[in-house]
Amino acid sequence: MKESHKVLKEAIDKVGIKQVSTQFNISTALIYKWCENPSPAVSYKEASGTVNPLDRIKTIYDITQDINIINWVCQAADGYFVENPKVSRSDTDAKVMVNMQSIIKEFSETLATISESYNDDKKISLNEAEAIRKEWEDLKRVAESFVRACESGKFK
């Protein structure tokens, strides 16, 4: 994962530091500090306002373990948070074809749920949307497990 100060710097560079400082009504010096690599010897209490906003959000999440914080950030960016699955040896068969068949099966189930929902009355209700979301999440979980197994060298 890229370091937070680098992510922040890249984002701020796109619009300019002065625009960000004006919107927040804070000094450019503080924003420059946010975009610097923090000293490992400095704690949050010592750093005061120099701890960048991304690290603050992560720390709040680390303390609370409330996924709604992450969901809120994703929704603010018109997105949706999907947790990476934990991959164990039992999750992923050592045969590539078996895993591909699992992905195709989940994809088929997702399409079937969408088709059934829409074909009933040419509309998709909230309950049907929830069922579609469940199938979609299952598909992403199976596909992500396969990709992670590939990345870990399981199919050598």
Alpha-carbon distance between the termini?
25 Å
Query: Helix segment count?
Result: 8
The percent range for helix content is: 55-70%
User: What Rg is obtained from the alpha carbons, in whole angstroms?
Assistant: 22 Å
For the report, how would you describe the main beta sheet? none
Instruction: Note the beta-strand portion.
Output: under 5%
Which series of helices and strands comes N to C?
A: HHHHHHHH
Kindly summarize this structure in a few lines:
By secondary structure, the chain is mainly alpha-helical.
Give an account of the 3D structure.
The chain starts with a helix and ends in a 5-residue tail after the last helix. Helix 7 packs antiparallel against helix 8. The protein is built from eight helices and no strands. Helices cover 67% and strands 0% of the residues. It has two domains: 73 residues, no CATH class; 56 residues. With 156 residues, the chain is mainly alpha-helical.
What tags apply to this protein structure?
156 residues; mainly alpha; 0% strand; extended
Describe how the helices and strands are arranged.
Layout: H1 4-15, H2 17-24, H3 28-34, H4 44-47, H5 53-64, H6 67-76, H7 96-121, H8 126-151
